[in-house]
Specification:
Length: 272
């Protein structure tokens, strides 16, 4: 199962995607990188018009009333909420009301949503304007969890988080895939994060789309360099060793596997 985009085009200001065929597999952590990453996420959320066709669950989607839009949850760059809302609790109650669900399980689900992103119930009384940038991002993400979408769209959500929080979020995304069969789509410029923590990657450039299993996509270092995409540090190391030292190390996501590969080649040199 996948989201299929055929002969797909969309544009916002000077950023565009033009007549591309893109496949987004379901029930995986997907990474999107490149200038048009936000454009694609907003289009999948129904915020931007497009030409071409989008297929979801075997059905071509209409541009106004689609199953895809109904099953997506979006966390964007800006934290947008009505002016009458002040506290986190009021924001969550507002979101719950939009779901049309009964009040019977609301409080329990609200606490669970906070807990899953690492926040305590004390945050319910916090004023949103008094939250830090990273706290606002976590509250947005918790609000998305509260709505329980099948497809979670995260636009630059990693900005403002240190490596420890980023790693914790990666574990959360993996849990959402494995236990709850969600699809998590992350748009970011952090190629190291995309390489380390996603299963499938889509690189959007002005000329061409590269897509596929994350490790395979990032092994094409020449493509990344040509299109000004940051090369992940661990990939860059292997690439330079291959180019400068002519030692054919394998590409690895885990630095421990890379070290084993290095030691293997060192042993071979000693034996020679």
């Amino acid at each position: 199962m996948a989201i299929g985009l055929k002969n797909f085009s969309c544009q916002c200001e000077d950023v565009k995607i033009y007549k591309e065929n893109i496949v987004i597999p379901l029930h995986k952590v997907i990474g999107i990188i490149g200038p048009a990453k936000s454009l694609l996420l907003k289009t999948l959320n129904g915020q931007i018009d497009y030409s071409g066709s989008i297929y979801y669950k075997g059905q071509r989607q209409s541009k106004k009333d689609t199953l895809l839009y109904a099953e997506t949850g979006y966390v964007g760059n800006d934290f947008q909420y009505p002016d009458f809302i002040q506290t986190v609790e009021e924001y969550f109650c507002y979101l719950w009301q939009r779901t049309g669900k009964t009040l019977q399980t609301r409080d329990k689900k609200m606490k669970e949503a906070l807990k899953i992103v690492g926040l305590t119930p004390e945050y319910f009384k916090r004023n949103i304007t008094g939250l830090s940038f990273s706290e606002k991002k976590l509250v947005q993400l918790a609000g998305c969890m509260l709505l329980n979408p099948s497809i979670i769209l995260l636009d630059n959500v990693l900005v403002g988080f240190d490596k420890l929080v980023q790693k914790r979020l990666a574990k959360l995304f993996k849990l959402l895939i494995e236990k709850y069969h969600k699809t998590v789509i992350i748009g970011t410029s952090d190629s190291d994060y995309i390489y380390q923590y996603t299963d499938y990657c889509i690189i959007l450039t002005d000329e061409k789309v590269s897509q596929g299993e994350t490790q395979k996509v990032f092994e094409d270092v020449s493509f990344l360099i040509k299109h000004n995409i940051d090369v992940p540090e661990i990939v860059c190391f292997t690439y330079l060793v291959r180019e400068k030292k002519h030692i054919k190390l394998g590409y690895h996501k885990d630095v421990r596997d890379l070290m084993k590969d290095i030691y293997k080649h060192v042993d071979l040199k000693i034996k020679e």
